[in-house]
Amino acid sequence: MKLLKLVPDDTNFDFVRLRGWAFGLTLLLSVLAVGLTVYKGLNFGVDFEGGLMIEERFAASPDLDRVRAVVDAQGVGEASLQQFGDPRTITIRLPVQQGGDEGATNAAVRKVEAALSQQFPGAEFRRYSTVSGKVSGELIRNGVLAVVLAIIGIGLFAIFRFEWQFGVSTIVAIVHDLLMTLGFFALTQFEFDLNIVAAVLTIIGYSINDKIVIDDRIRENMRRYRKMEMREIVNLSVNETLPRTVMTSVTILLALFALLFLGGHVLRGFTAAMVLGIVVGTYSSIYVSSSLLISLGLRAEPEADDKPKRGGGMGDAERVAPRA
Amino acid sequence: MLDFPRWKVAGIWLILIALVSLSIPTFVPEEVTKSWGIHLPRVNKGLDLAGGSYLLLEADTNDVAATRVEAMREQVQTEMRRQNPRIEIGDISSRNGQLSFMLRDPSQVDAARERLLSITGTGAGMTGQRQWDIQVVDTSRFVLTPTAAGLAQAVDTAMGDATEVVRRRIDEMGTREPTIVRQGTNRIVVQVPGLQNPQALKDLLGKTAKLEFKLVDTTADPQALARGQAPAGDQILPYPNNPSGVPFIAVRRSAILTGDMLSDARQEFEPQTNAPQVSITFDSQGGRRFARTTQENVGKPFAIILDNSVISAPNINEPIMGGRAAINGGFTVESANQLAIALRSGKLPIALKVVEESTVGPDLGADSIRAGILASAVAVALVVAFMLITYGRFGFYANLAVVINVFVILGVMALLNGTLTLPGIAGFVLTIGTAVDANVLINERIREERRRGRNIVQSVELGYKEASRTIFEANVTHAISGIIMFVLGSGPVKGFAVVLLIGIATSVFTAVTFTRMLVAGWLRRAKPKTINI
Question: What is d(CA B157, CA A98) in angstroms, rounded to the nearest whole number?
Fold first, then answer.
């Protein structure tokens, strides 16, 4: 049986040659993403904003303006409606209720529900949640803290396991991934809630994973070809790991697309963020972190080598093989 | 590396079979596993899948401080009176979280301090820290301030008790399998699967149910009361249902009886009017006290006070000796029942407020499970097919590992009594993707080594060896972000992190060790001349 090879053997793309352009593009996109996030802002979910969210399913796709009119007539504050996937399902967002205690919130939920089921026969309640302003503040704080700690922790690990250049380039690449994700959410105005924080952390995890694989190969090749120029080592390493990079991205994307189309609307934002993250993370492995290694002046230092001596051009691998 | 002694092979299979079989009860309906008569660990469905209500309750810690000062006030008063010689005190007040009082006779300062120390503790307690600061100002005024350590300990105790009370009340409601967990210093998470309208639950938990019986001070001047001035030793309490129309009443500060002297409370109907009422039974100590007080105060009214508001103030027509009493006051059957539950389960030592709440309808939950299972199945099918056409036999081994891994994760979750949430399912799908990455790394490396001209055994061996290092590093970094999510995350983030972390640990075993064993076994048996990879 002939097996599938997505990437032909022994590719030799000159990734590094394009790195000037790539840096320019990366910088431009990052600035754009920051601009968008600041200018348009993120569409925070109730978890972060505080307030009330009611999800209602209607017998048939309802007229949004009529729904809005019905909800507004209840005097529970300005409602924002959102349709997600299924045209019959609508989420209604309301601000934190006056008085702020449970009684007011509850009354609002009951009022809206009663009015909707009266005006739209067959409308059924699916879920609701309320978050007080105080708790939402904590959730934001914890979310930001988690992301920052993850970046620092992983950066430190990269520095300990490799050289400092690897740590720095990895952190820069992750910040890039993060900005792209934020920019994406600012652009699409998808709801940014707690689930998305989990997605962001997973993107960070995946992206690092990708970088570690390439970094690992760069380190290996630095030992194997001591005389080689750094840019050639990077090119060689990226090319050597290319089949794996493509294979893994494709398999994970396959799994994610299944989730995106079949996993239900509750997870849609999460999955969309993940898909974007895989693409952006793969890009940044090649064009941000690996390319940055060259600019940071990483090179193999044959004379000041304190690691155990290995035989000439032979790598670590060759020495072990005979033991089989 | 390809050497697998027989005991090792047996061990690996044994571990996998054990973990996979742990996942079986999860697929069997709960009624069935119960009928087997043994308790089998299973993965529970989270609220987003099962439908139900989630409440996050928060206690006001200032409230604890205030209650503590109030309680100390009564203790001080009794203590000063109880022993000989009696120490006369006056101008006692509890304000700004402090208790202060004057001694009528300044020469008794030392004796008073002695007695205060005996009730505030000299530094005993679990932490060995003092619970109260005692100061003497202007030679005869004592000021007692609860210390931060003492307060923290009090909050901790109160929260522990409150969690218990919450549990009892929810159990009394007859709801099935609620989860009640303390969170942080002053919060309680309540999850009740299947509950659609949490209103009744919230009403019940919103009541502290502090029940007190106090004598009414009929001598108080109504005009002074209206100005908010209570006679010494009295307090003014709201009385919304006062038949006389005045919405407040003066009662003696010290209680005849409190709710902790009850042994039972039931909703009943008043025999004559058939109106709902709550009948209460005192324990022996409470019964004796009630009998004595009613004997001494025949003809006078006493107030029944719930959560600092008077429900009714009946006259004592005759001594009540049976240790039983009934509370009337415009109840509905429901509210009487609720009060009875609240009284039975004891008073909340601290008032609780709902700060976060969500309810998921059962339809959405069922839809989410269906969608989640469908998505997972399709994801597995796609990945399996893709691996098979890319790596042939090696892809098949990887697939076997992935499928086993799904059940192993479920088995481990069942063992840890874990809960599967919708984000958890996403974690599953993602774990499938990343577990495959380990095999991709290995197989690509084998391909590479083959191209470099190494023989089959060497290539496979090197493939596993070199890739293992990368896989280890990649998984450590992944685990770092997983642990951070688990520690800092709440709700959905935590559910996702649990699956991710378990998946990282088990996938190393299935994707690396297990497939290596399969490949090694095949190489030894078949001794292939070429491999198709």
Answer: 33
